[in-house]
Amino acid sequence: MGSKLQRKSIAVLGGQGLGDNLLEMVLLENGRQAGLQITMFCSRLCELRSWFPQHSIAPTLQPEKREQHLANFQMILFPKAPEPGTDKVIVKNWVNYGPLYRKKTNRAEDMASISGQIFNIAKPTLCNGIRPPAFLHHRRYQQRICIHPTSAERSKNWLPQRFLALAERLQDKGFEPVFIMSAAEKADWHVIINDRFPLHGFAGVDQCAAFVYESGFFIGNDSGGGHLASCLDIPVVSIHGRKGKARVWQPGWGQVEVVTPLVNVIGGALRQHLWKYFLSVAAVEQGFERLRNRVHISASNL
To answer: pTM of the full predicted structure?
Structure first.
C-alpha cells in the first residue's frame, strides 16, 4: 500500500440501521489493520463505543455542520453519491462505494471485498473488530434463547403468535426462550406475551448486546439484532421472506441457519404481506435443530 493513502484521514458515514452499521465497521477494522486513521460517524453505534475500543466513533453529523466537519477528511466513504450542492472539495474526496456491491454476495463478504479495493489490501478481513467487555462471559446461559420478533419494517416480521408457539415448543425441550426488543416496543408485546415468557425491552444497544452475548442462541427476523448476535458469535436462526434477499442480507459471521417459506409468493406488495403465512412453526423449529446440531458438532471437534 502506498504511503500517500496511509497519511489520509478517512470518514465513514453510517447508514440508518444497526445491521448496516455493524457491517460498515468492517471498513474501519480493515482500515485500522492497514494503519489508517478512520472515524465512523453514527449516533447509533456510539452506544457501542466501548465495544469498539480500537475505533473512533462519533455522533451522526448534523446537516448544518456536515460540510464543515467533512472538510477535515481526505477521503469520505458512503454507499451513495453526495447530495446536489455539496462543496466541490468534499465531492472530490467522496468515495461512493455503492456500485461495488454485488447482487448475490453476502453483505459482510461484500464489505470485506470493498475494503480490499478501497484500501488496496490483498487479504481483507471479514471481522468488524467488536470486542465485548471482559466481565461478560460468552454463551454463559447456553439454554437461553433470545427471540427477537420485531424489526424496523413490519413487512419483515414473522407472525407474533407463531413466535409464541415456537417459544412453547422450545420450552418443552428444556430451553429458556426470552423475548427481547427495544424499550419502545415492549408495551405492545407485553399484551401479546401476557407473562407467558420473560420479556426484556432494552433502553440501549449496549444493554441488548450484553444480554445477547451471554445467551446460547438467537432467533429473529431479518433485522439488526441478527447481525449483532452473529458478529458476537452467537448461533443465529435468521427468518427471511425470500431466499434471494436472504443470500445478501443474512448475518455474515459465525453459525447462521436461514429459514424461508417453501412457497415463493410472486409480486412485491403481495409477497411482503403473505410470506409469513407460508412459513410454519415446524419449519423454524427444524431450522433451529439444524443449527443446534452444527453447534454441537463444532464444539465436539474443539
So the answer is: 0.93
